[in-house]
């Protein structure tokens, strides 16, 4: 039985890369709640250009996410991480020294072009044993939601005290810290290996793009972030209009996010335990629709606005956790890394589209028009999701095989016959066994014992 405790290399990799991921995402999120209000003081600023400044980061992130992941397989992980972080620093410095909205737009575009999320996950895979990979990737995933909440809370405080440009100086500082962490704390990759559960495969892009279940999930994450950005475009101005000063917006974000997180985790645990993710998925979309209806009717009511926001942030946090779980469950065996790459790309395209279209509607019409658009989006999302199926409650894993085991005849058939194994894929060139298992019936230790047993019999 393999040791499942994290060794020193895995601890340094997970903590170091987790900090890199969090600090980088914190820098991105910090700008979102305040640019719509404080950004209007920039030269040539208008609501449409503010929306572009917010969304251009997501657009360049989406554009370069998959290419960065593929290139890192050729030239190495750390080199590409340094390059991506350097682009983030350059974009942040340009934004920090720009007093025109056009300078902010250009800086934000450069910030987003350093799309290293897939590369960070690939390096994590290189430095972590397969039996511990699920633990460390879960740790990284949890950081995403926490980072979003922290950014919403602290950015209004920082901007009030030091101004909008201070955010970009803070992002620059965070990015320098990230470079130092990668350089001196994260271990050097000595065993570059490709793991289909993490890495992106260029020859499988079409397979993922034509998968009906994954298409719906990618549309879902796109729409979720479209709705988020539309709300963040109008919310600060609406709170101001209702008499709540920008300097105190963090209080609302803090309370609503604490309530959201406290409700989400028990629901997710319940859904997994009772195998009812489909119902929770539809419940989440329904709550989003109700929240948008409440927000549209909150034009002259502060408390209806708060109720609508609370409903939305609760449902957003719920869906942000459920959708990647469904992508993981529905991904074809051996193609989860590619599927997650498209998931991230769809997510960032949602950020870009939502901020741009939200600002355009706000400029051409009004706040009610933005919320009406959100209501229509939520209805469309609910309608296309009604026939979504309950996923199989299985786990994907990868086991490295020796040459002796690979030489065993009918190996794939023998593994398939074992209890709790639903799918098997053996990639001889990678010396890898990819399987989907039911954790209630079997686990990694049982499978490894079985492989050791048939290896002994054949010898």
Structure description:
The protein is built from 18 helices and three strands. It has a three-stranded antiparallel β-sheet with strand order 1-3-2. Helix content is 74%, strand content 4%. α14 (336-364) runs antiparallel to α15 (367-385). It has three domains: 1-189, Up-down Bundle (Growth Hormone, Chain: A), CATH 1.20.1250.20; 212-392, Growth Hormone, Chain: A (Up-down Bundle); 395-458, Alpha-Beta Plaits (2-Layer Sandwich). With 459 residues, it is mainly alpha-helical. One of its GO terms (molecular function) is transmembrane transporter activity. Keywords: Cell membrane, Membrane, Transmembrane, Transmembrane helix, Transport. This is MFS transporter. Pfam families: MFS_1, YajR_YAM. It is found in: Cell membrane.
